[in-house]
Write a structure and sequence with these properties.
The protein is an alpha+beta fold and 227 residues long. It has one domain. It is 31% helix and 30% strand. The chain contains 6 helices and 10 strands. Strands 1, 2, 3, 4, 5, 6, 7, 8, 9 and 10 form a 10-stranded antiparallel sheet that branches. Strand 6 and strand 7 form a beta hairpin. Helix 1 packs parallel to helix 2. The longest helix is centred in the N-terminal third of the chain and has 31 residues. It starts with a helix and ends with a helix.
């Protein structure tokens, strides 16, 4: 089953690339939207059916993404936020955990391409939470290539003896994946917001996805979706 999912995801990524697709955005407020989880892939035929759903969404999503990029170019917003500004969106605190040092980050721009990244660790003894935010804003849209996998992952889910992966969407602007590794109790939620920001929240020594989901939901998703 895992091989089926990997194959389906690869084909989906190729479909996105051919269509010039980057993760779509919209004008909704994701903090007010419900998370819609994808259904588990049940065999090769079901995987092919999922690919059909993905293909149908490409045309509209591509136009939506291009419109967002056009709007940012028109208002002169063609470079990523500085990582120090991005750091303001990191959780100020996480219940039961303490910050481990200061946020770490960097901002790089070159020939119309830019990316910023900031991350912060939170600890409670041996327990650890890591939160990362990336901004792929750029004039030429090259960063969109790094976001295609999130769009594909949002369409499919898998559950086996070692991990449970659940794709999800939240409103029109967020697509991502929740992954729980059953043996080492490690939980991760990763998502793209519009066609620009990527968020990753991970935690060790977890029994489920609840902590990382709560941290993700408490982040300023509306502010990200507006840019």
């Amino acid at each position: 089953m895992k091989n089926v999912l990997k194959t389906a995801t690869l084909i989906a990524s190729l479909l996105f690339t051919v269509g010039g697709f980057t993760a779509c955005g919209g004008g909704d407020k994701p903090e007010e939207a419900q998370i819609e989880e994808s259904e588990k892939v049940d065999g090769p035929l079901d995987a092919l059916g999922k690919l059909g759903d993905v293909a149908k969404a490409i045309e509209g999503a591509s136009k939506q993404s291009e419109e967002l990029k056009k709007q940012r170019i028109e208002r002169g917003d063609t470079v990523p936020m500085h990582y120090e500004k991005l750091a303001e969106w990191l959780p100020a605190s996480i219940s039961g955990y303490e910050k481990q040092g200061d946020p770490e980050g960097s901002t790089s721009t070159m020939s119309g391409f830019g990316v910023s990244e900031v991350k912060q660790a939170y600890v409670n003894g041996d327990q650890r939470v890591d939160v990362k935010i990336m901004d792929y804003n750029s004039m030429n849209g090259a960063g969109g290539l790094a976001l295609l996998g999130f769009s594909a992952a949002a369409e499919m889910s898998i559950d086996n003896s070692t991990e449970k992966q659940v794709g999800f969407k939240q409103g029109e602007t967020i697509k991502g994946s929740q992954v729980f590794h059953k043996k080492d109790k490690h939980a991760t939620i990763s998502a793209v917001v519009t066609d620009r920001f990527v968020i990753e929240v991970s935690a060790n020594q977890q029994e489920d996805m609840e902590l990382v989901k709560k941290i993700f939901q408490d982040m300023p998703l509306n502010k990200m979706a507006e840019l």
